[in-house]
Each structure stands twice: as C-alpha cells, then as structure tokens.
Amino acid sequence: MKHKIILIALVLILLSTAIVNAEQRKSKVLAALMSLAVPGTGELYAKNTASGLASLAAETLLWLGYYSFREQAKWAENDYKKYAEAYSGTHLTDAEDDYYTMLQDYYSSTEYNNYVYLYARNGLYYGNWTQDEYDQFLDTYLYIGNAAWDWGSTDVWYRYGELRREKNKYLIISKFTVAGMLVNRIVSMIKAVYSVHKYNKGITEENTLSVNCGYDYMKQRFTLSLEKRF
What we know:
mainly alpha
C-alpha cells in the first residue's frame, strides 16, 4: 500500500513539473487590447516579431505624418495672415479665424458691410427691432477702422483664397492620417488575435503531456506511464 502512495505522489510531482515547465498559453483579449493601445505590441506579445515590428513602423510613420501636416497647416496659416496684412489693407495682425474667412468671402469690407446694413434695416423696419438693437447689431458686425479691407485686385484676392485652401488641404490630409491610425489598430488587433491562436495551437501540438495506464497480463500487474512530447 505504501509503495502505491509513493508511486501516485511521484506521478503528481512529475505532472506538476511538466505543467510548470510548459510554455504558457497567451490571451487573445490581452493581445487585442495591446494592439488597440499601441499597434504591433499585441503581435510581439504573441511572438510574431516581424508582423509586430511592421505594425509599429506603420504607426510611427502615421504619427510623424500627422504632426508634419499639422505643422505645415500652421505655416500656411501664418503665410495667409501675412499676405492679408500686406495686400488687403487691414491693420489687424492676428484676428479670429472668422475675420480671415470674411477676407476670403468678400472682396472688401464695404461689400460685406452693405449686407450688414441691409439686414439691420430689415430688422428695424420689418422685424420690430428697437433703435438700440439696431445700433448694437451694427457695432457687433460692421468691419470698420483697422478692421476694414479692400483687396484692390481680384488676382490678389484669389491668391489669398489659394493660401487659405492650402491650410485646409494640410488639415484634411492630417485627418486621413488619423483614419490610417484607426485602420492600423484594427489590422494589428486581427493579426494579434490570429498570432495568439497560432501560438497556442503550437503549444498544444508540440508540448503534449499524456498519462497512459494499462495492465500487463504477463506480469499480472498494472502499469502507469507519463509521456511528454517536445
């Protein structure tokens, strides 16, 4: 009886040792979350080094592109502000973006102000505005004094519009890089989950642990064997 207990204890020790020394299975959820946070890390976690480095490189290039296009948008904005100061007659050096939009939409402040006067008169005569409301509206929306402008030439005005569109172009491209980051994360997550699947499957196939039990009729005794394939 005693030798049977010793045999069972030995088998349990061998089983425990084999399980501890076997490679651990990896989590698909963890791999996906890692790739969602930083593309490529989930694949590296699943031992797919080449794919992980490729995803990391793509993410790095996308971030570099994003900051580069945002910086070029700032340069383009600085260019059209200096251009407006030099050629439109305005004396404002750093106004709100709405002001620079007006400079693009209207050839002169006189043209814009005429629309403001027309709207205000309609409010006064047909919209039951008071004189104070009329005056307050004009004070708020008229561009006069240092804010007045006149391009003087349609070619100069059109050139300003081109500079404004240049900024918008870089901003749009930067948004595409953000979309690229999202796509890169989705692709990396898919590859990470698949890599974990292959990794775990490899562990199952290569590190198979089995216990075989039988009866030896010649020796009239039971046999127990432990088999581990590497």
